[in-house]
Write a structure and sequence with these properties.
Two copies of one chain form a homodimer.
Chain A (H helix, E strand, L loop, with lengths): L2 H21 L6 H11 L7 H9 L7 H13 L4 E2 L9 E2 L6 E5 L5 E4 L18 E12 L1 H5 L3
Parallel strand pairs in A: 3-5
Antiparallel strand pairs in A: 3-4
Helix pairs in contact in A: 1-2, 2-3, 2-4, 3-4
The structure holds a DNA duplex.
Chain lengths: 152, 152
DNA sequence: TTACTAAATAGTATCTACTCCTATTTATGA
DNA sequence: TCATAAATAGGAGTAGATACTATTTAGTAA
């Protein structure tokens, strides 16, 4: 793909993003667009601080708090999402038998479950050729029973 | 299962744990055993602070730092593990196409990959009946190419 | 048993990721 | 252009985790 096409894609995505903001009643601020642009323009799964560094090159005075808030907003409107489980205090599991985790994004609780078809998945080939896979789980996120009943 | 059998299981697990410690050249301290016991005796995927609270009932003076160190040790020797992704600063992903994540437990980098058989997995029934599943991914952990070559 | 030594611990200080608060600025709709 | 609610900058506060140091202790060997 040529740079020219990349450029086009990016502009298209930004236009879509702005539309989505309007739909959700969110204002289109330079900071918001800059954060979105930085995030979509990378494949490194950056932390807020890393995004802050990138965006500062365009908007010198943007605060880390704004980047944090904006990233949360992006996740809320579905324009981005958080990498599985990150941002939570470390949680430990003493159960070594095969099982999978469901995490409630509202209250944070982790629920164990076992579902046979999720066991013994094949390793992907090619793409992760050089990687040593030590653990492989199906990870679900959503709302637990209690939090479904009483939406915040 | 009866309480009596539970008790038996626990003692058996502790015995195995002590054997494993000896194999790895780790000392068997009351603190270490108490942390292990607390973790194996619950299915709540506790944080270090939660474990600290539990263990304090037995060992009043145990420090939070010891609990933290011990939990890391348990994970290192394979007597427990950390719930997927937790304990990492929040990381964001602007790629909304279907894809999966591999995380290097050594350097922390997240690698995107796509592997067809991992898409369109069925939802588990029964166990998570009351939960609303919003996201479903296969999550791999291990060592990336660079970190495999130069083990710490 | 006793004495020795490296490992482990308690307690504290420090660091980092993140959120909260307040005054100021700004995007949007009238 | 004006009014106003939303968003922002900057800094204070908080929580989770790590680093440091002096002290204690488990395991070993006399």
């Amino acid at each position: 793909m040529h740079t020219h096409e990349h450029q086009f894609d990016l502009e298209k995505k930004i236009a879509e993003f702005e539309t989505r903001c309007r739909q959700k009643g969110l204002r289109i601020t330079p900071q918001r667009v800059a954060v979105y642009k930085a995030l979509v323009g990378t494949d490194t799964h950056p932390t807020a601080e890393e995004v802050h560094k990138m965006v500062r090159q365009d908007i010198h005075s943007i605060s880390l708090d704004t980047v944090n808030r904006t990233l949360l907003t992006l996740a809320e409107i579905g324009a981005a999402f958080q990498v599985e489980g990150t941002g939570q205090p470390r949680r430990y599991d003493g159960g070594l038998e095969n099982h999978q985790h469901f995490r409630c994004i509202s209250c944070g609780q982790i629920v164990d479950f076992h579902y046979d078809p999720y066991e013994n998945l094949h390793n992907p080939g090619q793409v992760l050729e050089n990687c040593t896979i030590l653990r492989k789980t199906v990870y679900l996120e959503g709302l637990c029973g209690e939090c479904s009943d009483t939406p915040a």
